[in-house]
User: Fold these one by one.
Assistant:
Number 1:
Amino acid sequence: FVDGDGDFVFNASEMGQLETNDKEGRDVMIQIPAVSWLENEGDQTVGAATKALLPDPVARIQLDDFVSKHVRQGSERIKSENFPIPNSFVKEQFEQRVHDYENAIADLQIISVLLARWANADQAFLLEKIFSRLGELERPGGGLTVYLGLSWYPVHLLLYSAGIAALSVRKFEILRSIFLAPIRIEHRTGL
């Protein structure tokens, strides 16, 4: 029933396709795809847009939206369906996968480095958001160990990049928030 009083209406047709959860009280994680309706950055690079939003306290909502949009896009790019676990190890295929992961998170890497270097204490939660969301992505549960471990490479690369940026300016609290970003355990598979 929609009577125009602010009811939130959405299409839940995919809910019927979800796996049933035999354990009562356990949530089922639903991935939300990246949205394209957020404002377009135009010709501005990701770095330039981040730099423009960071120092402006009035732009904190836009910065949050900007980071959230890129987290969704990065999550969509590195989801396990895009990186299926092969049956055998091939060096060239492994190298290509590393390169593909790096390309998939390139924008997030720029954002993470700039946030780690320039964010103030009120903006540190944005870095936590990046690492929490990427850490909670569904990982493959079986297959070759080398590829299972590699599924964590995007997170490790961002941790390294942002960590170096934070250390370069002695922002130990930012580094602490990066390493202690909360990740729900039930989503940590493929370790």
Note: The chain has eight helices and no strands.
Number 2:
Amino acid sequence: GSWLVIGAVLLGNTGHRSARWSYVSPWLTDIGGFPADALPALLVLAGFGIGAGSLVGGRLTDRTSPGKMAAAGQAIGCAALLLIFLFSGTPATAAALMFLCAFGMFFVSSPQQLLMVKVGRGGGEMIGSACVQVAFNLGNAFGAMIGQTVLNAGASYAWPSLAGVPCSLAAVVLLAVFFTRFERRYRPSTR
């Protein structure tokens, strides 16, 4: 089960990184139509999305299961990537989709870390958490590379988000498989 989670973290972060974080400034100015001096405020908005996603993902994980919530968060991120490609041509939609993408990207943080701690029980908790961080960082590198490859082919800054959709979708599938195979009898924490 741990390899499913590590694969989901790697692929999910590859999808999100290729679409948004590596190219957020030119995407917001060239596609979203924002002036450059609006970028700091927009990044604060992204920060609110990150915080909200992390809080909501953690709370819902406490009430359901980490695998189910990690899959849901990756699905939110995947949908956001597709919507960015299709509808980010105005300032209002670009800002809203940036928030949604940040929300989905960090919604998965708590459930995915909890998954690795749970599958690593019996002495592997620390190595499991370390592997998730390695997968996250590799996703950063792979996502930036994929996004740059798309841009080098002459595409606009909206296209890297579409390139990230297959990776994000694969992460959803891996987490759904994990949930189906390993969490059928999961008991949420009772606080």
Note: The longest helix spans residues 125-152.
